[in-house]
Design brief:
It is built from 13 helices and no strands. It starts with 9 loop residues before the first helix and ends with a helix. The protein is mainly α and about 290 residues long. The radius of gyration is 21 Å and the shape is globular.
Length: about 290
């Protein structure tokens, strides 16, 4: 299936050729423009659109937030938009790209289609932006966010060798739980902590997170480990897997999986604290969250 993006790589694709050769990322010139466009769009949303629209649409809430909380708010606006877009793109390609349905282990390890590269390009642009934000605002988003951004970017960029592009697209579906996570956070800021609506969203968050990250993610990781092992163990393969490449990808993927299980535990603790705490304490926390503390 061909790349569906209406903008061709153009000059930036040619300029990226030397970098692609140095890093052995053969398909990078075909998708570098998607990385840059994605990065630029999310930067514009975070820096300009999210603050302006939030001030206009939610003046009583956004204007009262602390500067630290506003940074977190803006980032969550971006991540929600990105999750909706990248999940839609990934699901479309997964079901519409007929080449994917006929791939054996060799193609799943080394195969490439333009549409898969397109989705990975847009995802890499977001993770590059996320890495920039996580590193420059480490005190706001924490070390876990930085580790996630670095690991996700590493996995995405390795797809341009190409390497396990098939699984890279499947791992993008981790983001199916992101909108529910951000909605839960926004509800706190709107004074809806402990409400029935937040409870429903919290249940959907746990189901989607466990389903797409823990169950689906673990299942896909095991399949990917098996295929990479098969490539390593096959001397006759015309494209053997270098040990460093396999280790680097598996380490990055394992970090993401460990973070997913850690965050799932934290989510359960947070949700329980929302609905198990005494009413007086809940009301007091609502007031603090309204003030952006």
């Amino acid at each position: 299936m061909k790349d569906l993006y209406f903008v061709p790589p153009g000059l930036v694709g040619k300029l990226s050729q030397p970098l692609a050769e140095v890093l052995a990322l053969k398909t990078l010139p075909l998708h570098i423009h998607e990385i840059l466009h994605s990065f630029s769009i999310y930067h514009i949303i975070n820096t300009y659109l999210a603050p302006e629209l939030s001030t206009w649409l939610c003046p009583d809430v956004y204007s009262k937030l602390s500067e630290r909380t506003k940074l977190n708010w803006n980032v969550r606006v971006v991540s929600t938009i990105q999750a909706c877009f990248i999940n839609s793109a990934a699901l479309y390609v997964i079901f519409a790209d007929e080449e994917r349905w006929t791939m054996g282990w060799h193609e799943r390890v080394w195969g490439y289609t333009g549409a898969t590269g397109m989705v990975q390009g847009f995802a890499a642009g977001y993770f590059l932006w996320d890495l920039m934000i996580s590193s420059t605002q480490l005190d706001v988003h924490g070390l876990g966010s930085l580790m996630h951004a670095a690991s996700a970017l590493t996995v995405s960029m390795m797809g341009f060798r190409p390497f396990v592009n098939y699984y890279g697209l499947n791992f993008i579906l981790y983001e199916l739980s992101t909108p529910f996570l951000n909605i839960h956070w926004f509800m706190d800021k709107f004074g809806m902590t402990g409400s029935r609506l937040q409870l429903v969203n919290g249940i959907l968050l746990l189901i989607s997170f466990a389903g797409c990250r823990l169950v689906w993610g673990t299942y896909q990781s095991v399949g990917m480990y098996k295929d990479v092992w098969a490539a390593i163990q096959t001397p006759a393969a015309d494209l053997p897997v270098p040990a460093w490449l396999a280790v680097a990808y598996l380490v990055a993927n394992s970090v993401l999986n460990i973070l997913n299980f850690y965050w799932f535990g934290r989510m359960i603790q947070t949700l329980r604290s929302r609905f198990d705490e005494p009413k007086d304490a809940r009301e007091e926390r609502k007031e603090r969250e309204k003030k952006g503390q």
